[in-house]
Amino acid sequence: MTWGESHGPAIGVVIDGCPPKIPLSVEDIQKELDRRRPGQSTIVTQRKESDTVQILSGVFNGVTLGTPIAMLIINEDPRPEAYEDFKDKFRPSHADYTYQMKYGIRDWRGGGRASARETAARVAAGAVAKKFLSITYGIQILAYVKQVYRIMASVDPNTVTPEQIESNIIRCPDQKTAKRMIKAIDAARKQGDTLGGIIECVVRGVPPGWGEPVFDRLHADLAKAMLSIPAAKGFEIGSGFGCVTMKGSEHNDPFVIRNGRVETLSNYSGGVQGGITNGQPIYFRVAFKPVATIMKPQQTVDIHLQNTTLQAKGRHDPCVLPRAVPVVEAMTALVLADHALRHKTICQWDK
Amino acid sequence: MTWGESHGPAIGVVIDGCPPKIPLSVEDIQKELDRRRPGQSTIVTQRKESDTVQILSGVFNGVTLGTPIAMLIINEDPRPEAYEDFKDKFRPSHADYTYQMKYGIRDWRGGGRASARETAARVAAGAVAKKFLSITYGIQILAYVKQVYRIMASVDPNTVTPEQIESNIIRCPDQKTAKRMIKAIDAARKQGDTLGGIIECVVRGVPPGWGEPVFDRLHADLAKAMLSIPAAKGFEIGSGFGCVTMKGSEHNDPFVIRNGRVETLSNYSGGVQGGITNGQPIYFRVAFKPVATIMKPQQTVDIHLQNTTLQAKGRHDPCVLPRAVPVVEAMTALVLADHALRHKTICQWDK
Amino acid sequence: MTWGESHGPAIGVVIDGCPPKIPLSVEDIQKELDRRRPGQSTIVTQRKESDTVQILSGVFNGVTLGTPIAMLIINEDPRPEAYEDFKDKFRPSHADYTYQMKYGIRDWRGGGRASARETAARVAAGAVAKKFLSITYGIQILAYVKQVYRIMASVDPNTVTPEQIESNIIRCPDQKTAKRMIKAIDAARKQGDTLGGIIECVVRGVPPGWGEPVFDRLHADLAKAMLSIPAAKGFEIGSGFGCVTMKGSEHNDPFVIRNGRVETLSNYSGGVQGGITNGQPIYFRVAFKPVATIMKPQQTVDIHLQNTTLQAKGRHDPCVLPRAVPVVEAMTALVLADHALRHKTICQWDK
Amino acid sequence: MTWGESHGPAIGVVIDGCPPKIPLSVEDIQKELDRRRPGQSTIVTQRKESDTVQILSGVFNGVTLGTPIAMLIINEDPRPEAYEDFKDKFRPSHADYTYQMKYGIRDWRGGGRASARETAARVAAGAVAKKFLSITYGIQILAYVKQVYRIMASVDPNTVTPEQIESNIIRCPDQKTAKRMIKAIDAARKQGDTLGGIIECVVRGVPPGWGEPVFDRLHADLAKAMLSIPAAKGFEIGSGFGCVTMKGSEHNDPFVIRNGRVETLSNYSGGVQGGITNGQPIYFRVAFKPVATIMKPQQTVDIHLQNTTLQAKGRHDPCVLPRAVPVVEAMTALVLADHALRHKTICQWDK
Fold first, then answer.
1. Residue contact D260–C305, C-beta within 8 A
2. How far does the CA of residue D90 sit from the closest CA of chain C (Å)?
3. Given pLDDT bands bounded at 50, 70 and 90, which one contains residue D351?
4. DSSP reduced 3-state for C195
5. Residue D27 belongs to a domain with what CATH number?
6. Which H or E run includes C224?
7. Could you report the predicted ipTM of this complex, rounded to two decimals?
8. Residue D14: which of A1, A5, A54 has the nearest Cβ?
């Protein structure tokens, strides 16, 4: 459970249900937060936040206790004054109006609870889940930028490495395309405009048999987790929307025995069948809209129900994609850790 | 909560949390089930099931009591013998192998719990949710077939009517395109093959302020609900994956006062901003893969881990789309009803 | 999750989360239901219900599938006409008035959902949990009548056997006291009055380490489960209210090594310390009030808010204790099964 | 959700679901914490903790936002060295052994997570719930010490006031008895021994119709909440265990119209019938065992499974009762607030 407003004193997260005796250090968390941190490059927001995490409970002598893990990140550079102009105006395609309608009150300082700043807490929690999955099952989760605006990268999800992803500031392992993406974002930023794109994620090493059969299908939980990330508009697993133009005879993944193990010849299922993993890599894609905060004047209304215009100030991302990569990985890790812990309650097949 | 295996004695559902004093009759449920029923036309499975529902509790003198509503549908035409050949073989792109890996046992009769037959119970539950939403808030939920294979319909979600949708057996309101879709499905069926497609859903009349801000965003819950439907591979809301090729200045939905109410000039948000409704129509799309059961020989493995082949027998759908339309509506209704009941705990904005 | 009204067509239960491959037959369920069944002796209600259970899903070839188990019991002898007089009057110390205030509507036929008849569904579910706990862990759950009115039995919870409990119609293993209890109940029945009492329950064979440390302490969950049984007014574990008149030096349970295992010299903790089992027998007691339906005239009010009187007709229990024994065992089994499944997610101590 | 270890850097709590626009200040929280604080009088532990609370999120301009409220209490006076001797030894009737068996690891510093220090976080959360219940419904929750060891107070729950309760350090409104209780605790402390007792709680002003009919009965949730408090061994509502020696004709609460409202002549039900409130005051009692940490040598075992002895050092309570009073009130407030928010989803009776 995360908590905290963008320009309040701090944000944080409490993790319940983490197994005991997992080695865990502040560094494990911090290195993931540094990938999401503002100000890390020229194509992201210049808000100055070190995003330094403190672990307040649940870890003792370097290992988890099995009790709740509380983590805290102090907001070091809040500048609520930049938002004074939005106090009475609803920013288009933000959550200002909908929060007002739901709660009858809102923290107008930088979006408050609706700010993407909340995702720092998710990244902290995801770092714990990643560590647990890696140590216990050898699972590797890799997300990367697949597309920005009309610029599409060519990436093989089966061979992509963390080093390739981290080798540029856009986090696209296709280096040539990465340069074109960065240029496009720079150009949009200069125009006061913003761009969207697609993040692809691949998970390797998940054993077969994880997931639930009906409502809590693994890919349904992944869909929910991804759509809960700010600015996400779509989710697809395996063949995704592309499945529509294939016939059943093309789309089915034939089973085959390889080295005594059950594998599939193709992987249009994306590693999940009937909501449960089949041991193949899981891969999926998430669409992110262009950031709603643009530096151009926009038509809108105010809380007195009058038509008006507004123009953003403050420090904003021209493209959310590079900083969303660790968030996608974190949410994936949290979903998988949840299913890992559920799964252990169920006996497996004795072949 | 639904229960039941495809070829067991019965399937059913229990609904907890339905408010009291909602008028509810067996006919309300049955008319929705009849839309999902097998054998309703030439392009769906010919399994003979009347899908007659019984209400066993929670309704008294024609209105709900507020206590759990249990509903039961007897399986009238189980033919488990048609599945004898699959007892030891894993059907490609079905849940046979993954169930075996999760549970170490499976009901091989027609997919058992993984069968799409389970969705009849969801349609029954959805009918209750639809009645509640319609009576209490005047909400209308309409799903229809937007695309089959490469054949795309032209439909205006703002004006489409239930009559247009129900006027043909494929449930596509674009009548000309509907005929082409039906032909394509017939052709695939004759080849022993299957087709996928896209269902679009529009919801009208949801007040602003429904939803949750962080994890249980309304569209995240919709995504989960849709991906929990068998054969669903992708979900997108509003502009969806199309948002990627738009700039922020094109994609934002400007607010405007119309007749004293806050409206938006465009609706790329699909009626949801920051996870909470803004009063505009909600619309989203779901991709369904071609049915995995095809009438052609396929390569696979058996439970002794030997390579083998199988060929389906039995009664199957060549295209899941027309019968999935009421399932999409039902799941949408269940998500909205859940948020409706949560929402009432929160006070609204006093303008 | 249970469902069903006392005088509706049927009652039932759906169990989610039962592990696969547990052998389970209708007889396993029926034998527990027969212990709760009305009409089993002269000191219980004479309503004629065979309480015959049907298993509708989740079991295949005699073993559980891991999918939801739905069970159904048809109401064979509903006589709603006996309750016509209560349609407009609130029976004292029943749930009639509170249901009316909560739901604005109620099924007045025999208490509807509030009827103790609902506990038949719990006993069915508990039978599954008992089977699971017995087969997987060798756990034995024994409840018995400890006190009726002022008549208290002398029972050693460490040695009591199922045979002793079932050897008389009051289910009190102290045979002499049992006779006095039966006489007292008969006398009360003849006066049109009712009696309450105490049920004690002992659980043997629970391994150390089950439970949760803060909110879901094992004994807190037991307390909730017991107080959710109709007519229950109090719960105490181990020394219970008796702990109050002991000093810390008397009440502490000293640890000692016996046969290489950690045991305690006394067991005032009742087998649970800090919410987690310590491997000693768990024992607790539940107080049940005298049945509210008496055959004497009583002062009350009607739904028009007028003072009035009523006098019960129909078939009622003069004392709920003998039939509550299997309900206490069932609820205990459900709580333990829930913790058993959670517990497996946690690694144990490597000594 | 609370988090934190007794001798870690901090403890805290996150509250989700608090309605927006409730006025809330640090003082509201602090005044309750001061009642639970160590060192407040001579009969409680002398650990020096100011228990100063910080509100980190969810409150803006003095009112709640509807988003999660995070609160933090720094541990100012941890002295883990006092517990060095317990590192390898299991303290009798503490959670040391059971934590070790569950998690395979434990924070031995002052009980870690199992320490009653965790209840400070509950008191902070309860203060928010109390404020909400008081402002929105005028509900008043009062707990007080009813019995210490063999010394029983005479208190009328219908007229007792907060001032009477707070007028002495034991929090017993019967002033003469209070003095005897304090003397008894002092005497026990000098002997290195500890005492238990009973806390009674009364809730006034809860409207009829709150609660749930089957599993989440209001008094079942209260029972769970009370038994989740460290050292609690029993719970009883209304007549409680005393109901056993009453007949149905004595125990029933006759309804009567008073000033146009439905009331009861007696209140053996304790304000709850069938799990739902009837508008009468709710009252219940909780038994607390004598504190397990005594200053006398005790027999126990160590983690090498050897018999040994231990003797406590450190700062401990000779009797938990006076500091448990605000904890009982807090947990009661949390249960009621939860039901208040659920209840609003349900329509009421239109008389």
1. yes
2. 8
3. low
4. strand
5. 3.60.150.10
6. helix C218-227
7. 0.94
8. A1
